[in-house]
Specification:
Strands 2, 6, 7, 8, 9 and 10 form a six-stranded antiparallel sheet that branches. Strands 1-3 form a two-stranded antiparallel sheet. A two-stranded antiparallel ribbon has the order 4-5. By secondary structure, it is α+β, with helices and mostly antiparallel strands. Among the domains are: 170 residues, no CATH class; 77 residues, no CATH class. Helices cover 40% and strands 13% of the residues. Helix 4 runs parallel beside helix 15, helix 8 packs antiparallel against helix 9 and helix 14 runs antiparallel to helix 15. The longest helix has 30 residues.
Length: 480
Amino acid sequence: MELEIAFDNSYARLPGRLFMRQAPVPVRAPELLLLNLGLAEELGLDATQLKSPEGLGILAGNAVPKGAEPLAQAYAGHQFGGFSPVLGDGRAILLGEVIDRQGARRDIQLKGSGLTAFSRPGSDGRAPLGAVIREFIISEAMYALGIPTTRSLAAVATGEHVRREAMLPGGVLTRVAASHIRVGSFQFFAARGDTEALQALLDHSIERHFPDADGPLGFLDAVIARQAKLVAQWLGVGFIHGVMNTDNIAISGETIDFGPCAFMDVFHPGTVFSSIDHQGRYAYMRQPEILAWNLAQLASALLPLMGEPEDAALEAAQAAVERYADRMRAEWAAEFARKLGLQKLEDGDANLAADLLERMAAEGADFTNTFRALATGRARDEFTDPLAFDQWEENWRARLAREPEPEGLTARLKQANPAVIPRNHRVEQAIAAAMQGDLSVATRLIGALARPFGDLPEDLADLARPPLENERVQRTFCGT
């Protein structure tokens, strides 16, 4: 039974220097661990075929399906502020693109699929199974939270080991995205002065993601708008990406690359989890600032396409980036007003939200549970000193009294504030169990995370509990 995938590979039709044609490297003993049936249906794929030996071969990288044109994409990137002119897909292969049931173009990519022309010296092109399971859990949780994100179709164990801090089981993730074009994709060609390839990439990106954008400036403005909204949504769920390098910023506005990312438990604006972020560059509240820096790098890369005179192009690009700050503030205010159950934004609403966050940080309140408990009247229980919340609540209630439609507050609050997130200790527990051959912990967590805004049934209520002291995860790792 041959797995049928209707590929239409637009990226493979671009100039060859945008990528390297590369087949995935087969693995020894693939085993299908997790399959996303809902996503398979969206893509028009037959789940029964995906589970077959032929389907497993494709998901593991042991076979190339008919119509695929596997390739590794070229890109550069600023990593922790330092520019690397050559990065590219060093452990990932884009099999091709499909048109899903809604008519949208989607990439299908294998991560952990072996060495490519872009692999770094000494690397193996593989992925540890723990990192694969981690991305599967968190990316699907992000999707259920309504946050634009790459998706996970399948997680496969390879039957092989990879050497990291120890010898670890290997895995391959099948990742699905609107595209894998990054800010670093444009930097790659700008750094080489290759305006022909840069123009081809821009034209392709506009056609694929922003058909109404007018040239490079219109494209830049559209990317800025989409990214500002995305990062505001991250902040709204206490998410910390951990490696906001320019090669990890997708121009589609999707969350991409779930390495050392994490969700906060106790709120603090300076929270950092990533083991490689020694200076706190990508701390929770620095993410808007870092995004501005990344967008400035995109603007710089696009300058050669903005025409003459050079001074005018530079001034226009700078103006576009400078508008980001107002956009970001507006998106943040809208996101947190929604979390407070407010329907019509007023001038003081951002200050009201900021005041609550300041009190939460001072009192060690849990981010997710405090906002969720606004709907039940139990938010004060999250504070060491409940009076700190009571003082804020008076101002909140006074603001709610001015709402044009006060009815339905509880429902609005629940729809804006999840009951369950992929807490770090729960993700680690799921990974540890999977390493021992027990997938039940992961599947239970994935099932709960698929319905984050509903009230948790009693048998899943433990997933909303913050970690005990001995369960706290202090550091997360890249997993590459």
